[in-house]
Amino acid sequence: MLTKYDPDRAPDPQRWRAQNEMDLMDIVQRYHRRAGIRLPDERIHAALHVMVENQVALGAQTPVGEAVDRLMGEGMSRHDAIHAVGAVLDKHVFQAHSTGIPVSREAYYADIRAVTKEGWLAEFGPAPDA
Fold it and tell me: Which of 5, 15, 99, 121 has the highest local Cβ count within 10 Å?
C-alpha cells in the first residue's frame, strides 16, 4: 500500500493501480500540503494527478507515459510534466462537460502527443510555488 507520493518519482505501476483512487487522492493532497504548494482547489488538482498517473501506469496502452518522458527530456521536472499532461486532460474534460459530447480518445491522445514544454509554459506557465 502506498503511503507517500512524490510526483518527481514515478510510482510503481502495479502498486499504484492496486490502490483505491480516493486513497491516492489523499496521498497526492498530503504531498502538496507537505511541500507547501497552495492550490485553488486541491481536490481537483489531486484528481488530475491521479488520472494522469493512472494513465502513465498503463504503460504502452496510452501515449501519456511517453509524453511525460518526452517532456522531461525537454527539461521539465516530472511534476511539471504531470501538470502539462493534466492541463491537456482538464481541457478535454471541461470541453466534454460544457458541450455534453464525450471526450474523444483520439483527439485527447493527439493533443497529448503534441504537448511541449514551450507550448505548456506559453499557455499555463509553471504552477505557483511548484
Answer: 5
